[in-house]
């Protein structure tokens, strides 16, 4: 074998690809119902965009980005997340001049992060995300949270739980950061190396550390919620009211800060229960200053990202009877079996007629005998086999065999597509 798939990447093969298609169709449906339209951005951007938006102090920029020089000696980066690119497109295309809010979503968007591959998290992974520009009210935050929860519960995930927090804004956060930094500096010798670095660049990131020793030291750390300005406090209380009106349980978790520097006010995570414990399925929040920081007007925004490999992994951990994602079948409605090479052109023509009538149709392309074609059709799971031989051609008829009941029906060739379509429709109504 010449080479193998790169570490941290994955091939999606049938029938798994059909499950992804079903998930994508569901996501598109939920997005459209709420007035969101699809946006597609390039797989790479100028490196400066991510340094400026995600934050030079973030682990993503410092350790995880795939950055390289192109042939014009320009620094470009495979996108580690999609929000920055969506914001860039929002500004560059002048979407901010439209009636606000502008609601956008992206689907199966490839992201690249150089990190240790783990379950549901790959170096190349894909996300479904939604971004709402120009809506400052907490109702927009609640709407997005509910849309994300709706996707996860609709496919059957168990124990979907919501955790929310507010990390303030540029007005109230600096004073809190000073308090937190002073608290952490008294415990420098007990923090991990990464947290000692984060303490100086962005102390809020320490709150997100997964090191048990660091978490122990954070037990009595000051909370951002206690330092919120009136605007942030009102916004957070409004969010809680909207969630309660929607009858959505939530938990306030002051440890949620998210890993990217552009967040303001609302941050949230959705988790699901699995046989391997509680796993995060989705995260997001508000980024009211990002549009302006990238060079656009002062427009508030809020959004989320949902890892599709992670969601699929969570789904596949469920028992089959609990999964509520229904891939479309690719098995043929009809397989046209021809007696010999002399009738293969007629079989080909009939396959096209069946497909034109809206049915999944196939035929033999390997020169099999009639008996072998029946075996092949059975392996494919074909519902019917249409037998086309010299006698049938002379009589202008075709034999339709139901592969489940073995019943056979002879019909005129021109009427075969519509006749079979009616037969299949009747069977579907009786199912």
Q: Mind summarizing the main beta sheet?
A: 8 strands, mixed
CATH class annotation of the largest domain: Alpha Beta
Strand % is 15-25%
Measure the end-to-end span: 47 Å
Q: Briefly note the CATH topology name of the largest domain.
A: BirA Bifunctional Protein, domain 2
Low-pLDDT windows of residues: none
> Can you give the mean pLDDT?
92
Q: How many β-strand runs?
A: 16
Helix content class: 25-40%
Per CATH, the superfamily of the largest domain is Bira Bifunctional Protein, Domain 2
Counting helices, strands and paired strands, the structural category is alpha+beta
Features:
Rossmann fold; five-stranded mixed sheet; alpha+beta; BirA Bifunctional Protein, domain 2; elongated; 15 helices; 431 residues
In short:
The chain is an alpha+beta fold and 431 residues long.
Structure description:
With 431 residues, the chain is an alpha+beta fold. 37% of the residues lie in helices and 22% in strands. It is elongated. The chain has helices spanning 16-33, 47-53, 59-64, 83-92, 138-154, 173-185, 193-201, 212-217, 230-245, 290-293, 308-316, 344-356, 370-380, 390-395, 416-430, and strands at 37-38, 44-46, 66-69, 75-78, 102-112, 124-133, 161-166, 251-252, 264-274, 277-286, 301-307, 334-338, 361-363, 384-388, 397-402, 408-412. Strands 1-5-6-11-10-9-7-8 form an eight-stranded mixed β-sheet. A five-stranded mixed β-sheet has the order 13-12-14-15-16, with helices on both faces. It has a three-stranded antiparallel β-sheet with strand order 2-4-3. It folds into two domains: 16-172 and 228-322, 2-Layer Sandwich (BirA Bifunctional Protein, domain 2), CATH 3.30.930; 334-430, Rossmann fold. The longest helix is centred in the N-terminal third of the chain and has 18 residues, at 16-33. Helix 5 runs parallel beside helix 9 (230-245). It is built from 15 helices and 16 strands. The model has no long low-confidence stretch (mean pLDDT 92).
């Amino acid at each position: 074998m010449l080479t193998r798939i790169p570490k941290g990447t994955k091939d999606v093969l049938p029938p798994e690809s059909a499950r992804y298609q079903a998930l994508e169709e569901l996501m598109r449906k939920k997005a459209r119902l709420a007035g969101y339209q699809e946006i597609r951005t390039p797989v790479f951007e100028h490196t400066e965009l991510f340094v400026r938006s995600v934050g030079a102090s973030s682990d993503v920029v410092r350790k995880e980005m795939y950055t390289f020089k192109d042939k014009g000696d320009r620094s470009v980066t495979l996108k580690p997340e999609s929000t920055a690119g969506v914001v860039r497109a929002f500004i560059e295309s002048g979407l901010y001049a439209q009636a606000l809010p502008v609601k956008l979503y992206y689907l199966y968007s490839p992201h690249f992060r150089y990190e240790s591959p783990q379950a549901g998290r790959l170096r190349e992974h894909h996300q479904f995300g939604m971004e709402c520009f120009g809506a400052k009210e907490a109702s927009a935050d609640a709407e997005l949270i509910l849309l994300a929860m709706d996707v996860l519960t609709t496919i059957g995930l168990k124990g979907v739980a919501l955790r929310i927090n507010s990390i303030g804004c540029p007005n109230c956060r600096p004073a809190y950061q000073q308090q937190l930094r002073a608290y952490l500096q008294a415990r420098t010798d007990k923090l991990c190396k990464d947290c000692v670095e984060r303490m100086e660049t962005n102390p809020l990131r320490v709150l997100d550390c997964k090191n048990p020793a660091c978490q122990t030291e954070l037990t009595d750390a000051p909370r951002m919620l206690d330092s919120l300005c009136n605007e942030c406090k009102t916004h957070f209380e409004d969010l809680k009211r909207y969630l309660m009106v929607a009858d959505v349980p939530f938990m306030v978790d002051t440890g949620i800060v998210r890993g990217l520097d552009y967040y303001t006010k609302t941050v949230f995570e959705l988790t699901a229960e699995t046989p391997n414990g509680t796993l995060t399925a989705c995260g997001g929040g508000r980024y009211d200053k990002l549009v302006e920081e990238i060079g656009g007007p002062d427009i508030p925004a809020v959004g989320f990202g949902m890892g599709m490999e992670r969601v699929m992994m969570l789904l596949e951990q469920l028992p089959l009877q609990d999964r509520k994602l229904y891939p479309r079948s690719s098995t043929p409605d009809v397989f046209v079996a021809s007696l010999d090479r002399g009738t293969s052109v007629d079989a080909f023509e009939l396959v096209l007629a069946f497909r034109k009538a809206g049915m999944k149709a196939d035929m033999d392309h390997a020169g099999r005998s009639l008996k072998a074609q029946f075996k092949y059709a059975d392996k494919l799971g074909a519902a019917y086999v249409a037998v086309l031989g010299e006698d049938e051609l002379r009589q202008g008829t075709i034999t339709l065999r139901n592969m489940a009941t073995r019943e056979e029906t002879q019909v005129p060739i021109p009427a075969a597509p519509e006749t079979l379509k009616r037969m299949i429709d009747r069977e579907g109504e009786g199912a």
